[in-house]
Amino acid sequence: MPQPFHFAFFVRDLDATRRFYGEILGCREGRSTDTWVDFDFFGNQISAHNTGTVTPTQNTGKVEDILVPMPHFGAILRWEEIEAHVGALDPSLLDDLMDGVDRLVEVTARWYLQHVPGQLGRAIESYSGPFRAFATAVGEVAPARWLQEREREAWALMDRGVPEGMARSHVLQPFLVHGPNVADVALATGRSFEDVTRAFFLVGEATYLDWLGSRLSEVSTTTRWHRWALQALEEDLRLTRRQVAEKVLGESDVRAPVEQALAAFLAQREESMTRLGRFMRGIALEEASDLAALTVAVRQVRALSA
Fold this sequence. Notes:
Elements: E1 6-10, H1 14-24, E2 28-32, E3 36-41, E4 44-49, E5 58-63, E6 66-70, H2 80-83, H3 91-115, H4 120-141, H5 144-159, H6 164-176, H7 179-189, H8 193-206, H9 209-216, H10 224-250, H11 258-268, H12 270-286, H13 291-302
Parallel strand pairs: 1-4
Antiparallel strand pairs: 2-3, 3-4, 5-6
Helix pairs in contact: 3-6, 4-7, 4-8, 5-6, 7-8, 7-10, 8-10, 9-10, 9-13, 10-13, 12-13
């Protein structure tokens, strides 16, 4: 059994520190004075003090192709809800469930590191409410066909012994990676989370992004360079959805229904959509699922937001 550690560090604001570690991360507060506060950091003790200069961070730690703030620390967590079923569920199924959570955390964390470097704690705090609003909106505005497909996936998991709540959460996780982008677009356009979430769904279907995502999931990688290229293309796919959705909503009256805004957007680009349709049919007929072909396809879609 690993021994717990103690780590003390300087902070600027004890109240903000309490909100981040206590309310967001759920760490139990321990002893405190006017100048410091302790937390139970997942079985370890951390102590935040406001009596000195905060250690500056630099984005000099390279993890794969992302520069991360240094210094930093954290807890490596396995989600207890899933681990509680070790021995009751097939190990490969447990791995799939854990991979779904890990991927959501990884993708959103990478978004924060890329868009708000050096302000990770404040960013997570400020986006926690919008992210919950987005997660709620997914179940309320998703297309009926999409919900039916997720329902079938959830029932397949439940048939294998996965609890209902865990199964339903798992099948929604792939779309939740859009949370930070949805929050940004809502702020930029003045639209509600429901409208922006609906736009992300509709744009994905209308501009072939959903289809490209399914083809991308079939790409096999044999080297680390392939994995990095695949990861970069996945990020391009998410960015393209965000850019097109923002353009659709930005070109319309804020009171216009999302469906109407998308129809007007596509009508103005009828010739481009015709070319895009021919291009995608060509990829489908050639059964092209390599990174080169899909990279070109994503760029073709992104051109719609120019």
